[in-house]
Each structure stands twice: as structure tokens, then as C-alpha cells.
Amino acid sequence: MSLPQEAHPPALTPQFCFHPTALQDFLRLSRATTDDPLSATLNALTPSAPFSPRSPTTPRPTRTSHRVPRATCASYLSGALFPAWHARTQALTYCASVAISPDPDDPELLARQAEGMRDRERVVDERLDPYSGRFFPKEARTEELARKVRVERGIEGIVRGRSWDVVGGKCEEWGGEGWEEAVAKWESGRGRQ
After folding, report:
1. Which residues make beta-bridge pairs with 171?
2. Structure-model confidence comparison of residues 27 and 102, the more confident one
3. How far apart are CA 118 and CA 143, in angstroms?
4. Mean pLDDT along residues 57-71
5. Residues linked to residue 68 through DSSP beta bridges, in sequence order
6. Cβ(168)–Cβ(174) under 8 Å?
7. pLDDT exceeds 90 at position 38
8. Quick check: 139 and 116 in contact, CB under 8 A?
């Protein structure tokens, strides 16, 4: 069984982060190629039971007999799942750092400054129009990026938690540790190689 085709990690540049959909497209494609088909992939790694012509009359094997051997699971996790998670983490971490950095190339900076000046010069009489005092300045693209990264990190936590539940259910003698600990062990093991 071949491993699923992985979304290649993008070149991490500010343009990648500020692009309206590039970050989300990369994350979506990576999740679709590794996390979404995880159950089917692990099922394909399960050793098949030998065929028996009496199988309809014999009781069906229990769920534990259809579990993936620990070594096979560990190989799949370290060869496909954890590298995909790592690439997504790197992209989110990089874009988070871009979001908190000053943005001298912001194309809308002057327009936002002019809008702010116009708002300060406005005369507001809320007795005549109670809504005239409201001012909603356009968000800077760094703030927009920070919000997008926060949302994607939340989604990533949910996806990884669900994927780890699948791993715990499909892999022999697997469990006890959370996905965070398993990834940390994998990363520390990679550092020694």
C-alpha cells in the first residue's frame, strides 16, 4: 500500500500568508490527503484474515483482530501523518510571526490613515442620528491574518484530536498519550537523526 500523496509544504513568505486563500488552501489540501482518509488508510494497513469458506457460519472476529500492528502504525505515523502535521504547524507558526511583525508593504495603510483622519474631523450629533457616532475602521491585513491563523489553529486542534482518536481505535496497543506528546516524541527523535 502506498502512502497518500502529501501536499508539499509551501515556500514560506509573507506573500503566502497574506494571499487571500493560499494558507487555507494548503491546510485544506494537507488535511484532505492525510487526516480525512486516515481511517481508510489504517484499514488498508490491517493484515487481512485468511479466507475461510465457513466464514458465514463462524462468528465474526472481534474488533481487536482488525487492528493495525504497532510497528506498522508507528511507521505510517512517522512517515506520513506527523510530517504533514509538522508542515502545517510550520506554516501556521510562520504566518503568526508575520501577523505580529510590522507591515511596511501594507497596500491599504494610507487609505486607513486617511479614513481615520476623516473620522476624527467628523462632527457627530447623536441626537439627530444615533448611529452617526459609529465608526468601523478597516482592519489591517496583519490583524486579519492573525485572526485567520487563530481560527486555523483551532481547526487544527480539532482535526488532530479526531485523527488521534482514529489512531487509538485502529492501532494495536496504542493509547495513553495524547497527540501532543506523540508529536513531541517524534520531533525529538527526528532531531537526533
Report:
1. 68
2. 27
3. 22
4. 65
5. 171
6. yes
7. yes
8. no
Amino acid in the structure at residue 105: D
Give, in order, the Cα–Cα distances in Å from 9 to each of 25, 99, 100, 155.
11, 19, 22, 18
Answer yes or no: are the C-beta atoms of 179 and 164 closer than 8 Å: yes
Nearest alpha-carbon partner for 36 in 155, 151, 153: 155
The H-assigned helical ranges of the chain are 14-18, 22-34, 38-44, 70-76, 82-100, 109-121, 141-170, 179-192
CA distance 85 to 150: 16
Torsion sign across C-alpha atoms 35, 39, 41, 45:
positive
> Would you state the torsion angle of the CA atoms of residues 183, 185, 186, 192, taken in this order, to the nearest 10 degrees?
150
Mean pLDDT along residues 1-30: 81
3-state class (DSSP) for residue 68: strand
45 closest CA partner among 87, 3, 14, 16: 3
How many CB atoms are closer than 10 A to CB 83? 17
Other C-beta atoms within 10 Å of 176: how many? 8
Q: Which residues contact 126 (CB under 8 A, 6 or more apart)?
A: 132, 133
* Integer Cα distance of 100 and 82 in angstroms: 27
Identity of the amino acid at 187 = E
Q: Which whole-number Å values give the CA distances from 115 to 108, 109, 110, 111, in the listed order?
A: 11, 10, 9, 6
Q: Which three cell numbers stand for residue 62?
A: 472481534
